[in-house]
Amino acid sequence: MRIESISYHLPNTELSNPQLLELFENFDVQKLEQKVGIKSRRIASDDETAADLAYHAGLKVLKEFDKSKIDFLIFCTQSPDYFLPSSSCILQDKLGLSTHIGAFDFNLGCSGFVYGLSLAKGLISSKQAKNVLLLFGETYTKHIHPNDKANRAIFGDAGSACIISDSDEGDIGEFSFGTDGGGANNLIVKNGAFRAKNTNVNTYSYGSGNLTSDAHLYMNGPEVFNYTIEVIPDLIKETLAKNNVSSEDVDYFVFHQANKFMLNYLRKKTGIEKSKFLISMENTGNTVSNTIPIVLSNFEKEGIIKRGNKICIVGFGVGLSQAGTVITF
Amino acid sequence: MNKEEFIKNLYEDLEIESTESIDESTVLTELEEYDSLAILVIIALMDKHFSVKISTKELNELETVGDLIHKAGL
Hints:
The complex is a heterodimer of chains A (329) and B (74). Chain A is an alpha+beta fold and 329 residues long. Chain A is 30% helix and 26% strand.
């Protein structure tokens, strides 16, 4: 079983650091580039949804794959087109896939890619599917308050896609999972769904002069960081142990690209060699469930990630939720 | 690590200009470099050297560099 192909799609509109500087005075662009590791991000337009971005990514991986062979579609998003139906059903039709396939959405963020691999593996190893189209799409920027400087600097929109196929080559290994809903309030859009329908709410300021409201995205960055540095080192150990590999046996580590500072701290704390630790978020920012596919796709295109490489993949964030695995690419 | 070394670490990790003078009475929020990233830097510093976790609530209660040093157990 392996990732047959992987790709991503970005919206056209760019929000660069110089553009942010025009919007917010005293913006420390140098710090943003060097420490947070982001120069630019892409923003979905008003009429462009997460499913649209995933659709375009889907077209890319289906270009060289017989789409009649796709027998399951899974779409990971927290920004669905509608409350109902599931966006995956709409994507089945738009992509021209067989009507005899299974399709569903699942709602996860930064841990979503690893969960998606786990679901696809489950379907294939239990012989319920042979070729799973795994789609990811996220448009957090639609949730961000226009005056929320910090989150506008961090998040970007993207869609991505991969095909997981039953194959003698490659491998999708064992998984480790973790969940702590006690931290749900640390990364949340509170209002607009059924717990609190009212979106006509007051704005408030938080952190270093950012504005948000209960109808917009709120992130307690320090608490998410605390949770990450507390649980992820153990999750990595557990993931490697379950797969009977040591850090030395792994060719590359690909973590959810939250921000460069956090990634480098995690890398040092867990003793991972710099040359094995892949980062690619300069032009895309934190694209939630898309960050890991973007890294895999970019480094594959550059010829750095090759078939047969052992890659440890770890996702963590909103939920709070985390998951890790080791794949043979 | 003693208090002087702690302050030296703060200078390095927060990239504070050497012209800016810091002592135990320095109020954290008045540091020119104090922003959302600086908070992550401080959390990392406390975790790395002292295995001390600071919640956001605690961080809001820590007013000065001296409070931080005390929290580190120095």
